Amino acid sequence: MTTVLAICVTVMVTVSVYLMLSRELKSIAMGVFLLGHGANLAILAMSGSPVLPWGGLRQPPILGGEHLVDALPQALILTAIVINFAVMGFFLTLLIVTARKTGTLNVDELAGEEPPRSSPELASEPAPVAGLETRSVAD
Amino acid sequence: MAPADPSLVLAAVGAPVVAGLATLLIPRAQNLARVLLAACGPAASLLLLGVHLTRYGVAPNHAGTTSINWVPSLHLDLSFLVDGLGAFFALLVAGVGVLIVFYSRGYFGNDASSLARFFPALGFFTSSMLGVFLADHLLLTALFWELTSISSFFLIGWERDDETAVKRAMQAFFTTGFGGLALLGGVLLLGDTTGVWRWSDLVATASEIGSSGTVVAAFVLIFVGAASKSAQWPLHYWLPGAMLAPTPVSAFLHSATMVKAGVFLLGRLLPVFGLLTIWLPLVVAFGAVTMLLGAGLALRQHNLKLIFAYLTVSQLGLFVCMYGFGGVTDGHGGSAIDWDLSQIASHGLYKAPLFLIAGALAHRLGTRRLPELFGLWHRGVSGSRVLVVVLLAASYALAGGPGTVSFVAKELFLGAAHHAAASHPALLVVVAMAVLAAACNVAIVVRLVATVFGWRLGVRDDLPGRDVVHGKDRWGPVLWVPAAGLVLVQYIGGLLPPVWNSVFRRLEVNVNDEAFTDGLPWLWEPFLHPGAPLAMSLAAIGLGVVLGCSQRMRGDIVDVHDRIYPVTYRLILQYGHRAFHGIQTGHLRHYLVFVFTLLLLGISWAAWVDPAMLRLPDGVAPFESLTGLLLGAVVCAAAIALPLVTERVVRVLVLGASGFAVVGLYLLYQAIDLALTQLMFEIISVLLFLLVLRLLPRLDRRPLISPRPRLALAALVGITIGWMTLLAGHAADQRTNEAVTLGAFFEEHSLHGTEVTDGRGGEGRNIVNVILVDFRGFDTLGEITVLATAALGVWSMLPGRRRHRNDEGQPGTIAAEVER
């Protein structure tokens, strides 16, 4: 199973790095989420294969069973999942705010711009992007 | 003899700063009380040191006091070394410190705000200086050394509204601070190499230090520190630059105390490093160049303070040279250094008065420029004649005229140079330089005298004479009495050497020449036994008189070294700016490439060190479980499809598919809690992502970046991480003894405790939960904090929360509600 996980990690990290190097913030966001999954799987691999050498699976990490899987990586991942989710929520919000204030999600265009000043007028201004608010649900 | 107790010395070091700070408590109007209290600080130091010395005597330089523990883990404790060298310098600082307090009352006048600001800074500085001179611990010396840099910054930049003064203070601070860093490095290197952290122990074990590369490096670093503080070429520029400071500061810092710190340090180092082969060439070379350069520059100045500043530079070069000669080893009689402390004391006793009188003249006449003092004696400005008398008396000592200690000091130095040149012929150059420098001193005095009396030889310029500005109410005897007192000691020492010797014989360590075993000689003795030193003195005087009378070399010039600091400063800013913009491009992609490249380089380096990392471990069982294989295939397929799909809703679904397959892998790994959590969050994530997509502009252009290098870098990173996973996971597979894993610990203590945990267990059967809420509870708290912070961030960023009720149809509000 370790081999399978290693291959999965390879593919996921490759794809996520590829996405993170792109120009579009949405792709970068997807890359970050995928990287989170890849990292979790890498940690999971540290607990060793759940398949016992003589066949059959190990038991879940609950006292009473025999040949329990290693619980520590699971605890670490559980923390990581929650934090991943928090990061994702924050990232998506950033996406929305960035698009509204700058009208672009292209990081190269963003790099040249001065950070927008946060003033009450700016915050309540209608979005400068044409079509942003008029887009229909069917899109 | 039992080691001395450090508490008296500690009190002596602390007294000036305590007294200085205490003056802040005195009401504004009470200036007399303020001055007296400030003077109490250094006076108390004098008294306490006196008590210490009467109780324990002057310690030999290998016997420090006992120590008071301060930071034992850093080898840092409060221990002091009150040997002849340290005691002499400390007494000099404290003694001059008292005089300076009174002088500054005369200088600043009855100006309460200046005095209130001045005395705490002065006390701080005096205490730091005393600490440098008395500290026995290497790090303590470095610490006080830095404190002198900091406190002198306040004093030099006294005119805080004057931009130039502040710049010069910065220049002095950075230059000496740079030296301080070198000193710290050298001290750390030395202490770490030898394991000895006290000067006294270093002296005691000097023969065992050896001359390894590290020791030499440590010495060179410490020398850089000493040279920067003592204004050695090419770092001497800060000292004349610091002359913008008020005169009490110039007299105190730049003649008597701070600039001597480097010289003092060389005195400390001589018994430790004197036998290194690099000592003599390094120390003498820098000292000699500084000596001649300073004297030459002094000759070409018109501002009295600058003249004296460059003369100080020259004299400091001479002292460094003097300690350099201490490294001379010949067949008979050892090093060529005699009565070094007397020589240093002699300098302070005429240079401080010169500065003090320069300040007094400036207050009386409103000028410090030599041409404007032309004919001062005959002008009849009230009170100026006594200043001139003291000035001339001090100048006579500056020229090294017979009858002063200074004369003997010059003889001693020229004798040492002669002695050193006997065994090292190359040093004849230094002898010639010393004679030239002495001639410059004499020439300056000749011109000074001629100018003051208005003789034809005097320095005049074509500028119309300025109107004499009478100092306001500031002038008082206090402006010249301290100077006169100091000069008097010069003459007492010169005319009545037994008085001088009775004080200094107990302090001096370096007495090598038999002629001086009993102390400084009577005035006539050098003339009764004429030798090379006397001949050199006479040559210097003759040359000096000729030089002084000549019309050549009179112009006012600017030292080229003054450009060093501004140019360095500008270059650093310029290249720093450029480097900043080179690294901080503002493009996320560049940062990522940088980070990933570093990661790859790091791992390549590790693999190069340990090639076993690249070998496929034995017994990799590839595919034990068909379920796992299928799930893995789904994960991989979804991931690969992600960048290929262009329709953004499909992309989100593909991302979700990958996540759900991961949930399956969790299940296979028997991670029930993980599977449940991930499943829940994955569903929310996909929904959230879809919602957000609807709010974003459709800007999905094809990427303009060429995909190949991206893919190559991504593949490299992916393969590296995957390989690491394989190695680590395989190592976990191969372990035979499960009891030694960390997981086994949690398994054992999940329900009941053992003696390892003081009998406390987690009281739970689900090990993962017990770990989260018990063993690593703080970690979970941190996780909740992250979640809360992210939620706060989302809430504060979303514009929807500012909208009114009737705007609820707006997209932002939908997102905000979803977030909530």
Layout of helices and strands, plus pairs?
The complex is a heterodimer of chains A (139) and B (820).
Chain A: H1 2-20, H2 25-45, H3 71-102, H4 107-111, H5 120-124
Helix pairs in contact in A: 1-2, 2-3
Chain B: H1 7-22, H2 31-56, E1 68-71, E2 76-78, H3 84-108, H4 112-134, H5 138-156, H6 163-194, H7 199-204, H8 213-229, H9 238-241, H10 247-256, H11 260-273, H12 279-299, H13 304-325, H14 340-365, H15 376-379, H16 384-398, H17 405-423, H18 428-452, H19 481-495, H20 497-504, H21 525-528, H22 532-549, H23 564-583, H24 588-609, H25 626-644, H26 648-668, H27 672-695, H28 707-734, H29 742-749, H30 767-775, H31 777-797, H32 811-819
Antiparallel strand pairs in B: 1-2
Helix pairs in contact in B: 1-2, 1-4, 2-3, 2-4, 3-4, 3-10, 3-14, 4-5, 5-6, 6-8, 8-11, 10-14, 11-13, 12-13, 12-18, 13-14, 14-16, 14-17, 14-19, 16-18, 16-19, 17-18, 17-19, 17-22, 18-22, 19-20, 24-28, 25-26, 26-27, 27-32, 30-31
Keywords for this entry:
A: 139 residues, mainly alpha, Helix Hairpins, 0% strand, B: 820 residues, two-stranded antiparallel sheet, disordered C terminus
Protein chains sharing the most extensive interface: A-B, 98 and 113 residues
Q: Overall pLDDT of chain A, averaged?
A: 78
CATH topology type of chain A:
Helix Hairpins
Q: How many domains in all of chain A?
A: 1
Helical content class of chain B? 55-70%
The total strand number of chain B stands at 2
Q: Categorize the overall geometry of chain A.
A: elongated
Query: What is the C-alpha radius of gyration of chain B, as a whole number of Å?
Result: 38 Å
Strand content of chain A: under 5%
Which percent bin holds the helix content of chain A?
A: 55-70%
Could you explain the architecture of this structure?
- The complex is a heterodimer of chains A (139) and B (820).
- With 139 residues, chain A is mostly helical.
- Chain A has helices at residues 2-20, 25-45, 71-102, 107-111, 120-124.
- The longest helix of chain A is centred in the middle third of the chain and has 32 residues, at 71-102.
- Chain B folds into four domains: 1-214 and 244-254, no CATH class; 338-581, no CATH class; 585-615 and 707-734, no CATH class; 621-696, no CATH class.
- Chain B has a two-stranded antiparallel ribbon with strand order 1-2.
- The radius of gyration of chain B is 38 Å and the shape is elongated.
- The termini of chain B are far apart.
- Classes of the chains: A mainly alpha (139), B mainly alpha (820).
- At the A-B interface, helix 1, helix 2, helix 3, helix 4 and helix 5 of A face helix 24, helix 25, helix 26, helix 27 and helix 28 of B.
